[in-house]
Design goal:
Elements lengths: L3 E5 L3 H17 L4 E5 L5 H9 L9 E5 L1 E3 L9 H7 L8 E2 L8 H16 L4 E6 L23 E5 L4 E5 L1 H5 L3 E6 L5 H7 L19 E5 L4 E2 L1
Parallel strand pairs: 1-10, 1-11, 2-3, 2-6, 3-5, 6-9, 9-10
Antiparallel strand pairs: 4-8, 7-8
């Protein structure tokens, strides 16, 4: 629990500014940054934060995904497609979408190789995540076999999509995570995050593996 800082604040402008300041600070200090994004409710945070980063060329910044829904590049349910449709843009940064037109297995393997390279270099890895009412985060639904994968990134067939996602190992390797979760349906999941529950039942518990986590929500925490 000491690794999680809860903030009762869902102001997208404020959250985006804090996120941008962290990324700009690392880049200005000369450290390469890998910024991993999520879909769903976190999209608007990513879009807003990117506008605060893109004022200058950022060749040391790479942008990828926490998870993706498999299919042909550009398919409408793709997290990357939805980010771009919402206006995400970061001129000068290196963009690394998951979907490259490869088959399911090869796509997951390629992204695992990409992420493994970032882990093995002095790259600051920061993830922006959302959370579902069932406590899922990234592409890890309750009971997902990818949770216990030995890889940083793995694949599995969910009840809704073929998913490619960071595993527990991948999440643990992040230097920092920012979780944005708001809405009545998610309040119990936020309360549950203050307890020690089985990650197989509430995957968002895996964020406790990360050394530094900010949880922005509308339920508990310091009022900012």
């Amino acid at each position: 629990m000491d690794r999680l800082s809860f903030y009762k604040n869902t102001d997208l402008g404020y959250i985006s500014k804090q996120l941008a300041e962290i990324i700009n600070g690392r880049l200005d200090g000369g450290q390469p940054v890998l910024w991993l994004l999520s879909g769903g409710s976190a999209i608007l945070v990513a879009v807003t934060a990117a506008r605060l980063i893109s004022a200058a060329d950022k060749p040391a910044l790479t942008v990828g995904l926490i998870d993706e829904r498999y299919g042909p590049p550009g398919h409408p349910d793709s997290n990357w497609t939805q980010l771009l449709a919402a206006g995400f843009s970061l001129p000068g940064a290196r963009l690394e979408p998951v979907l490259r037109g490869l088959d399911f297995e090869a796509t997951a393997e390629a992204y695992d190789n990409f992420y493994s390279a970032a882990v093995n270099h002095d790259t600051y890895k920061i993830g922006l995540l959302g959370m579902g009412a069932d406590g899922h985060t990234a592409g890890l639904l309750p009971g997902s076999p990818a949770i216990d994968s030995e890889k940083y990134v793995d694949r599995y067939v969910g009840p809704d999509y073929k998913r490619i996602t960071l595993s527990a190992r991948g999440i643990k390797s992040l230097d920092k995570a920012v979780l944005y979760a708001a809405g009545k349906a998610k309040r119990q999941a936020i309360h549950n995050l203050t307890k020690n529950l089985d990650p197989a039942k509430q995957p968002v518990q895996l964020l406790k593996l990360v050394d530094d986590v900010d949880v922005y929500n509308d339920v508990i925490g310091e009022q900012l």
